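User: What would this chain look like folded?
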Amino acid sequence: MNAPKEDEAALVKAADAAVERLDAVKASIGRVIFGLDEAVELCLGAILSGGHALLVGAPGLAKTRLVQTVAVATGLETKRVQFTPDLMPADILGSEVLEETAAGKRSFRFIPGPVFCRLLMADEINRASPRTQAALLQAMQEGHVTVAGARHDLPKPFHVLATQNPIEQEGTYPLPEAQLDRFLLRIDVPYPARDAERQILLATTGAEEDEAVPVLNAAEVMNMQALVRRLPVGEKVLEAILDLLRLARPDESAEADVRAGVSWGPGPRAGQALMLACRARALLQGRLAPSTEDVAALAEPVLKHRMALSFAARADGMTLESLIARLAAKAA
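Assistant: Here's the prediction, encoded as structure tokens.
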């Protein structure tokens, strides 16, 4: 009879310790990144959920700096790949080279590519060819790569924070919907508010710049990921997620706008993403369990890249942002 109480007490103790450590992580990131609190929370939420995130924003909005700072604060080894049209899968995954020993014996040796890290920054992922995109996204999904028939496991944890420029589309290869679905969250990075931009100008144009400091390490991150999956989810939150998914699917929705204007809706992976992201957001905000407010707040980052409007709906002025916000309000 006492076991459940002991388990609950242990869970509360672990959550309290994690909240304290995560506050230190956010403080470390806040020394360098200004005015992007929501984007920072979503990046950390994606990592705590064990997933990957796609950062979308105009050039110069500190997307790269944000990822680098998150890597420093979480203590995850990071590498960066600048995606270009001529980038090949081997440039990311690695390749085998033929070596000859002093005794004259020849053998192949695998040279790991930049994907062998714990936090990979895929800069402008939509500039790579579909073949290269698919190679990376397979690594994201499977947690290993296969080169010359041999399997090579990636380090754990392994996360990809990819960036995408929504403005310049010349020479790009938009990610297919099935591959977009592999990203747990889509994070839109906005222009900074005036006060935040003032901080940026003062902090980055002087003789010295502040830097983030390491707070966590890979083992702590993995422990927190396990903790997130242990956090309880109430029936009300679960029902809100299920309601939202059905409202967003054109073949099931009770909303006329969705039935007429949405080409396709979110699949079960969206529900999995919402469940995990809601738990992670609750922990990041110092709560033991998620609420329906978390469902409403995360609806757009989870659903925006998993839905598409028809041409007629776009011509009528409908936007995914406004539609998702309305559906989330009804579900939550």
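The domain at 7-204+214-230 is CATH 3.40.50.300 (Rossmann fold). If you want, I can go into more detail on any region.
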